[in-house]
Design brief:
alpha/beta, Rossmann fold, seven-stranded mixed sheet, 11 helices, 7 strands, about 40% helix, globular
Length: about 280
């Protein structure tokens, strides 16, 4: 995978803000099993104080706020923050702060949980883990969730043809084959990189991992909207993006159901801040 520069990372992250309403409409919410796993790994008590890093338009926020004593969402996209603020308007225990996590001032307050889902990789690598450790109470937890498209046994066969479209348009075609869901105890390269970066801070003394397989079904227009919210698709030249989406649309429309089922494998990585002597 190509490593993005700081400028490119910021530019792509800002792309989500361009059409926040579309992002909110297209992006799926997480299953309850993910939050149950998180609460179990972090050993959270009732009503913890939570910071959500990069809340977007509040897809995860709406689940977190119902379990939280307080929820502070930090989001640097103005349009995204406005949508999240509107959705959380009925919850007095929630606030949305406009700004970057790297620059956010918690004003000496400490929290039980920092939660980042599909946003942690946008935060400056030389800042994120150290800052999280300073914001968390001793014994508090940093939870980083990463979700990848996954092909389990019985995955939607349309993806074979869709990868042909990617190959024709972008020159890059991923191999598509059924893959067993990896065990929580088997660490992959991403897990090891995460743990290595945590260990460099000397602030964390425990890392736990859970993997959640889940899926959802979309009609063709909704699926194309979803693809349009992915930063790598947004970064394509407009004519290539249009060609890609037209090819994918035809594959889905020609399928037996006219819909597509997408599977995600979400990895929940929870790191505990050392309690000290």
């Amino acid at each position: 995978m190509r490593i993005l520069s700081s400028d490119e990372r910021l530019r792509r992250a800002a792309s989500f803000n361009e059409d926040a309403e579309k992002y909110d409409r297209a992006r799926p919410t997480y299953p309850v099993e993910l939050y149950d796993a998180l609460w179990n790994l972090a050993e959270l008590g009732p009503k913890p104080d939570i910071v959500e890093v990069g809340c977007g338009t509040g897809q995860a926020s709406m689940d977190l706020v119902k379990r939280a004593g307080s929820l502070t969402c930090v989001e640097f996209g103005e349009n995204m923050a406005a949508v999240a603020r509107r959705k959380l308007g009925d919850y007095p225990n929630a606030q949305v702060v406009l700004g970057k996590f790297e620059e956010w001032d918690p004003r000496d307050r400490q929290y039980d949980l920092i939660f980042a889902s599909s946003s942690w990789h946008w935060i400056e690598p030389n800042v994120r883990y150290e800052k999280a450790a300073r914001v968390l109470r001793p014994g508090g937890s940093l939870a980083v969730v990463n979700s990848e498209h996954f092909y389990p046994e019985g995955f939607d066969p349309s993806y074979q043809l869709i990868q042909d479209v990617y190959g024709q348009v972008t020159g890059s075609r991923k191999e598509v084959k059924a893959t067993p869901v990896p065990s929580d105890r088997v660490l992959d390269k991403s897990d090891l990189n995460h743990i290595e970066e945590l260990n460099r801070t000397g602030a964390y003394d425990q890392v736990s991992i859970a993997r959640i397989l889940w899926s959802f079904e979309r009609e063709v227009d909704a699926y194309i909207d979803l693809l349009g919210t992915y930063s790598d698709h947004w970064a394509l030249e407009p004519h290539k993006r249009q060609q890609l989406f037209e090819g994918i649309r035809k594959v889905i429309e020609d399928s037996p159901t006219g819909t597509i089922r997408k599977h995600y494998l979400s990895t929940v990585r929870v790191a505990r801040v050392a309690k000290g002597p």
